[in-house]
Amino acid sequence: MLDGVTVIDLPRSRVDSAQQHDSALPAFVAGPENRLATVAIEQLLHAKVLPTDSSWYYPFVLTGPSGSGKSQLAKAITRHWSALLGETDVAYFTAIDFARQLHSARSKGQIELFRQYVAALKVLVIEDFQQLPQRTFLERELRDTLDSLREAGSVVVITAQEIACADTGLR
Q1: How far is Cα of residue 155 from the mean position of the Cα atoms in its chain?
Q2: How confident is the model at residue 54 (pLDDT cuts 50, 70, 90)?
Q3: What angle, rounded to 10 degrees, do the helices at 35-46 and 70-85 form?
Q4: Residues 108-135: tens digit of each pLDDT
């Protein structure tokens, strides 16, 4: 730490760096205003077992303008836990993709199967939460999903450009 600035190394994907086409940064630099968040970030990026008490940051919400590093952190958290737990226990969605898959499962009569899949996750990452369509069914399903994952001790990471509005129904 230098003058209140913390540098957190980000896990890289297992793809050979010559083949890697994403723009993953090697580290996240957090200023003093993010001091509290760095404790949770370091735990989510470097722990070998899931935190047993993540209730103090559940769900873990990363907010900030476009380009501030939210996606880099979310993808690094996804890579870290996928490597440790396996890809069946970790899911990464954009908010739009989550809504589409939920809608698809509902229209095919497979909503219970989708609920079971999500409820069994150890880590769920949802990006661009501000783009989630405001539909009562979707909001209710997401609220119930978050409640279920919290009870199961799972980790949920959400990114958004701003904190969700009070009228989303997700209190």
Answers
A1: 8
A2: low
A3: 30
A4: 999 999 999 999 999 999 999 989 888 8
Gyration radius (Cα) of the chain, Å: 16
CA distance to 24, 45, 106, 129, per residue, from 114 (Å): 30, 27, 9, 19
Residue type at 13? S
The number of residues in the chain equals: 171
Overall pTM surpassing 0.70 (yes/no): yes
